[in-house]
Amino acid sequence: MPRLAAAPITLTASELAELETLVRRPSTAQQIALRANIILRASRGESHGQISRELGICKGMSRLWRNRWLQVSPQGLPVVERLRDAPRPGAPATFSLEQITQLHALACALPEQYGRPISHWSPRELADEMVKQGIVEQISTRHVGRLLAEAELKPH
């Protein structure tokens, strides 16, 4: 049974120049430079096996980036954008950066300013105040605690 040849990559002069620049530039991230090198070698007609041996990578990586290049090239994205990681799966962030910033500002303010008869904020009081002010529809006490710990804020 004959082996299937990898899909050929044809580069324009500007794409070729940009990829070569990315490979040579010392400030290029190593991941991007490696991916650019894979595309350059693939455009010269090298097989996945040749590319993987020369660059010290697995064939799967060579195949992945050749296929991704062929997939995103018709979209007209800039060369560097074509070499970036694909978006990761998963749920989007529940709270915006603005909402988290408002939580931090609230945690740094005195509870008396908001009519709270306490001397220090607790995660439960902060969660209640955020809902009361309409900053968020709902937020758990534990999540408030995690956000404060992440920012190294201790409102007590």
Output the keywords.
156 residues; mainly alpha; 54% helix; rod-shaped
Structure characterization notes:
The protein has 156 residues and is mainly α. The protein has two domains: 13-82, no CATH class; 97-150. 54% of the residues lie in helices and 0% in strands. It has helices spanning 13-24, 30-43, 48-55, 59-72, 79-82, 97-108, 123-133, 141-150.
User: Low-confidence segments, ≥5 residues, pLDDT <50?
Assistant: none
Distance between the termini: 72 Å
Number of strands: 0
Q: What is the gyration radius calculated from CA atoms?
A: 26 Å
The run of helices and strands is HHHHHHHH
Strand fraction: under 5%
Q: Supply the number of helical segments.
A: 8
Total domain count: 2
Helix content: 40-55%
Mean pLDDT: 91
Morphology: rod-shaped
